[in-house]
Design a protein that fits this description.
Helix content: 55-70%
Shape: globular
Distance between the termini: 32 Å
Strand content: under 5%
Strand order of the largest sheet: 1-2
Largest sheet: 2 strands, antiparallel
Structural class: mainly alpha
Number of domains: 2
């Protein structure tokens, strides 16, 4: 599996350099914030969708996604030493496909009470509510290659559910856990450009050090039941960076994200992580 609950930096990074990054990140955050009432409303609205049109829309989404540049393809085609624009091209490439995104949402975003009845790429036969949640993320994932009509088919149950059910979503900050205020502070600093792209991109670690510290944080999140909080925090701080720098290139965003994600995870898990991984993750904050 390319995108998992314990490695949110991968999907957040791919989403950050998407042509519809703002909408995609917002949808990804929202599906992980559904209330029980929201899930119920989503399942009811999914029942109103034409099953044949929905199946065709999913087929078209998979077809449209086939034209997206993957990281594996980019690495094969970008020449050694690079050509003009190669760094930007590689930065826009994605590790996974629409089925990988859909699988993550169906498997991890919520508890789906309705019966499995909708075939979802990467996830198989899924509850209608889960399929509708996956569909709104998948719809944005394959834009602009997916035409307007199938995009509307995929996303309409989600929008109908939000229109019909007040309180369908929990506020993100309420789901960050006991250190949510620290996560919000990082987002605010990003929004105010107190954490700049250049400063974040300038942070460097020896090979393997960043990955080891992030792995420690993921284990701590798992042990304390905060994996959902970690994914949500990473997605939301990525969204804050994208909104703060709407004209930034893909390479600039990719370069800034490791340090930003490290700092976010450090603030989220700062009460349970040891001093060594915390120092590594907080380098962008000048406290490493």
């Amino acid at each position: 599996m390319v995108y998992t609950l314990s490695t949110p930096t991968i999907i957040a990074g791919d989403a950050a350099t998407h042509p519809y990054a703002g909408q995609l990140l917002a949808a990804l955050s929202a599906v992980f914030r559904l209330t029980e009432q929201g899930v119920t409303a989503l399942g009811m609205c999914a029942l109103d969708a034409d099953p044949d049109a929905t199946a065709r829309a999913w087929d078209l989404a998979e077809y449209a996604d086939a034209s997206a540049l993957t990281t594996a393809h980019a690495l094969r085609t970008v020449s050694v030493g690079g050509r003009r624009g190669a760094s930007e091209e590689l930065s826009r490439a994605r590790f996974g496909h629409v089925g990988d995104v859909a699988r993550l949402v169906v498997a991890e975003a919520g508890r789906w009470p309705d019966r499995a009845r909708v075939a979802v790429p990467g996830a198989g036969l899924s509850p209608g509510s889960a399929a509708a949640a996956a569909a709104v993320v998948a719809g944005w994932w394959v834009r602009p290659h997916l035409a307007a009509a199938p995009f509307e088919v995929l996303t309409e149950p989600w929008h109908a559910a939000l229109r019909s059910q007040e309180g369908a979503l929990v506020e993100a900050a309420d789901l960050y856990g006991p250190r949510g205020g620290y996560v919000v502070d990082v987002q605010d600093r990003v929004g105010a450009k107190a954490l700049t792209l250049d400063a974040l991109a300038s942070v460097r670690w020896a090979p393997g050090v960043w990955a080891a510290a992030m792995h420690s944080a993921a284990w701590a999140a798992f042990a304390t039941g905060r994996l959902h909080s970690q994914l949500l925090a990473v997605v939301d701080v990525t969204s804050a960076l994208v909104h703060a720098h709407p004209t930034a290139g893909a390479f600039a965003l990719r370069s800034a994200l490791p340090a930003l994600h490290a700092l976010t995870v450090a603030e989220l898990m700062g009460d349970v992580l040891g001093d060594e991984p915390l120092a590594v993750l907080r380098l962008a904050d000048g406290r490493g």
